[in-house]
Each structure stands twice: as structure tokens, then as C-alpha cells.
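Please predict the structure of the following assembly.
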Amino acid sequence: MTMQPASTEITSRTAAIVQELKDLEGPLLPILHGIQEEFGHVPHDALPVIADGLNLSRAEVHGVVTFYHDFRAKPAGRHVLKLCQAEACQSMGSDAVAAKIKQLLGIGFHETTRDGSVTLEPVYCLGLCACSPSAMLDGEVIGRLDDEKIEEIVAEVRS
Amino acid sequence: MIPRIYIPGDSGALALGAEKVAKTIAKELAERGIEAKIVRNGSRGAYFLEPMVEVATANGRVAYGPVKPSDVKSLFDSGFLTGSPHKRWLGAPDKIPFLAKQTRLTFARCGINDPLSLDAYKALGGLKGLQNAVAMAPLDIVKQVTESGLRGRGGAGFPTGIKWKTVLDTAGERKYIVCNADEGDSATFADRMIMEGDPFVLIEGMTIAGIATGATKGFVYIRSEYPHAVATMNRAVEVARKAGVLGVSVLGSPNGFDMEIRVGAGAYVCGEETSLLNSLEGKRGVVRAKPPLPAIQGLFGKPTVINNVISLASVPIIMDKGAAFYKDYGMGRSRGTIPIQIAGNVKHGGLFEAAFGMTLGEIVDDIGGGTATGRPVKAVQVGGPLGAYFPRALFDTPFDYEAFAAKDGLIGHAGITVFDDTADMLKQARFAMEFCAIESCGKCTPCRIGSTRGVETIDRLAAGIEPEKNLALVADLCNTMKFGSLCALGGFTPYPVMSSITHFPEDFKPAPARVAAE
């Protein structure tokens, strides 16, 4: 399991990110991306530090964090598998692909396997619509998913 | 001459295994002791042929594709470095029918060279538009763009020149150029392709927009689902700064312009221009009411040009070859070319840039070659998740903003998703409502709540509960969403729903009642 850093550590690392980026025009999204890259999620303890650094209320920061699908409140699994569920992929059987992967991993969308190996998420378009159905595994793009590729993916996230 | 091998680094090609092909080729070169240069180009957009490997020969480029790692050994054995025949041989890339039939203006350079080589960009006509622009008065640039007839390629089709004129005429001590690269519509990948395959054309177009309107700062807001485009654009901005294309003195002129790349965070609605501006400002991506127009009070309340990637990337050629040259292509009030993205269940999927005016049937059947599964085409969705589903009966509709509007559809960002006859249009209509519910920013009640009620009502239809009543309810709900939502998410979700009901009524009829068991 991913070790959760202690809250003082979160505070200091967050403060450093805020300090580095706060002079950008509209710094909040770059800061949140920076924090998620640092911790793998946006820890609750980071919010007051951001609010303080940008002279916002905690509620405002909370509102922004929760608006965007990308920002996680909890750490993800070691791998993150995103399956495109948008129309172009639907036309090539993305429903069946998702069903098969869910069954093989034993989890649904927005869930993480109990061993913490993989988090499964839907995504609405990866811009690979002429290579459907598509997926993204830890930032790597995969097109024309078929049984063979599905099995490769499952083997990789389990290893 | 050292042989040059071109292997695309475009996401679409990578998704089809281009990286493995590149590694296998590099390994094979080393094992055979052959000296060659591997260039990672963008994609030309013929995705059914990707990964498409090209070699530069004495007689020009020769393409091979789709290349699998297992083909590499035999490619070398048959002498592909000199363009020799092989089962994957495609000949000269610009003679491949899918590419030869296109009119490439915006995508003229995409996929040919290393996207980060400014020299290669200039060798193929790059920066000529900007060179002309720096010698012109802002108003003359705006006039030229207006006269070209260029309209917003993001989907709204608003004349680009008129938008620029408003920003030019609005006083402000600081103005912005914002590029909307939040390409979230399914079936679209033109923005991604150009950012990964020819990033300088976007930088050039934005810089021209800056000079034309008096804006000195640009932002490209790219969706987080496009990590490769983000990386390429960031590197291209660095290169452009070093070369003096960006900075305090653009190409040595008194004009200053610089830009930043920003990354979205997975919200579809941020493709809507006012929510994008809120997101850039670090707020929730909630839609703003218009007026005030972004051109008058946009980013941080300052006059702002907000244009789609393709609109901005089409500007350099207009400034290079003139308004008349560009305007000469097209039909009616749709001037110039449009990169049509043929996607989904289609044999020849990819990007096809053509003058406006081709019919939907020509695009799907002749260019796309019908479905990938070989089954009959049942429906095509044009314009992404907010676009209408068209049946074969409407395949004579020409690709033109007004012609599509007349058929209760939209061309949007020009993505086309093809579905074969196994598609269930009730399911597609339900998905449109479901997607709207997931992605609604929550500001307008008809969108926020109507979409959820829409899913429930369509579920009742599917279950055969009071079909006539529920069908009427869906139509009424769509009407409320259409007229009661500020932006296109709630306002256009009715397009896929109502077009499914109108053109495919058989899919909404209750399933034959089961014979009751005795």
C-alpha cells in the first residue's frame, strides 16, 4: 500500500509547491496538478495551505478541487487504467471491453483492487477515435483493444 | 547520404505500437551495422495505416504500413531503406488515395517532419504568414482574416475576424489570446494531431492573433487526456522563444508576444469558452452568462480572443497566401477547408482535410470505406457527443454549417462517428443524457437535473412503461434543456437524443410483450 505522508510533511511539501507557482496568472490549477503529481492525490491537509498561500477561503479551494474529475481525494492504485467509454469507442464495443476488464480485475469503475495494484476509471475520449476502443495505462496510450491486448494489460497491472 | 527513417510519435500511432516498431528498427539497425537517422514525425492522419513508417529515398519518400514489430526483419531483408517492395509497401505517401484526395491547407505540414524542428517548419513555408503580419497594421490583419471567411472551427462557426475586431476595438492595458485545446468531443482528434505534429503552426497563428488585436500574452488550455500534446507544445514554445518567434520582439519587430501551456483537469465542460476562462483563472469550470462577451471581458476581465486550435492554426496560411486563396475553397458561407475526423466503426479512419461541401455519404462510404466490421452503416454521429445522429437517408447533406443546421444537426468540431447496424439508438440517446449528467457544471437547472431525469425517462421507455407518455416527456424535457441552458452542453444534448428518436423510431418502440406464462 502507498504510504501516506504525515500531515506536517504534507504541509511543508505543499507550501513549497504553492511558493513555486503562486506568481503565475491563475495559479490554482497548476498548483493542484503539482500537488497531485507530488502525492498521487490532493490530500485534505493540503487545502488550508493552498488557501492561505493564495488568499482564498478553504471552501473555495475545496470547491475547485472537487469540481474536476482528475483530482483524487485518496491515493490511486500502483497502476491507473482508464478505459474510453465515449461514442467512437462505443461503436467498436467498448462496453464489452469494460465488462471483460471489470470481470478480470474484480472491480468496477472508480474502484481500486484490494491489493492496491490498479485503479479502474472511465474516460470520455482520449482522441484516439480512429483506433477504437482505446485505453490509457499509466499515461501510455493503447488503441484497438482486443482480447489479446486486454490480457496483456491485466497481466501487466497484476505483476 | 545517411538513410532517414520516419516513425510517427503521434499518440494515435503510439497507441498502435509505433514505439515498439521504433525500438525494433533501432535494434535491427545496430545489429546490421547500418547507420541511419530515425526521425519521429507526427502522423499524416491515415490511422488505418499506422504505424506508417517512411524512408527518404533518392526518388522521394516511400511509405510502409501498418508496420508491426514482426515486419521489421523482413523490411530490412527486402531493402526498404531504398524503397523496395514489401507486403507493407504503400508507395509515395502523398499518392496514397486517402491522402492524395485531400486539400491540406491547415495540415499541410502535419506528419511530414520532426514537429520540433523549426528549420523543417520554415522549409515547408512556415513563418511566412507571421513575417507578413509583423509588417502590417493590426486592422489590416483583422481585415484579411475576416475576408478569408474563416469561422470558428471549435463548432460554433462564429466568424474569427469579427471576434478579433471586437478585441482590437476594445481598450485594455492587457489583452489575451486563449487557445481552446480542450478537445473533448468523441470522434475528434484534429487539435491533438496538429499540436503533436505541427505545433509551430499554432504558435504562429496565436502570435498573429496577438499582433492583430494588441494582445501580448497567450494561453493554450490543453486537456489532461492529451499528455503527448502537452509535452510537444511545451517544448515547441521553448524552441520558439529561443528563435525569437516568441518574446519581447517577435521576429525582430516591435511586437511582443509570449505564451504558456496550461493543462485542464478532466472536465468536459471546460471546452465551453467561458468555463475554460474560469478554469484558467483557477476557479470551478462553471459557465458564465454572456454578455459580457469574452472579447470585451474575458480572462481576468480583460479583452480576450478565445479561439479553437484549428481556427488559430488556419490563420498562418491565410496570412501567407491571402484571404482570396483561402476563401476560394468551400461552399456557401462555409469557406476554406475543414479537417474532418472519420472515427468509430469505420474501415479507413483518420483525418481528412477537405474544402467544405462534400456530402456525408461521400465522406463515410467513399473516403471512410464503410464500417470496420463490414456490416451496413446504421447511423453516424456528427459533431461529437452533442451532435445529431444522421441516418443513411440524410447522407446527401453537404458538409457545411448551414446545411447541417437545416437538418437539425451541427458539424461541430467535424468529428464523425460511424455505427453499424448493431447500434441501439435508445442506448445512444440514453448515453447522451448520462454524459450530460456526468459533465454538467451545475449552473443551469435544465442541464443539471434535466439530464438525470432524461436518463430515468429513457430507462422507463426501455422497460416499456407508458411509452407514448414517456416519449412525449423526453421531447418536452429536451425542449426545456435546449432553451433553458446557458451553454451547448445542456443546450445541445437534445440533438443526439431527439435525432435518435426522430430518425430511428423503431429502436424506441417497446419490445414485443412476452407471452405470459400460463
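Chain A has two domains: 7-67, 79-158. The interface with chain B takes residues 24-30, 32-33, 54, 63-64, 67-71, 86-92, 123-132, 134, 136, 139-144 of chain A (CB under 8 Å).
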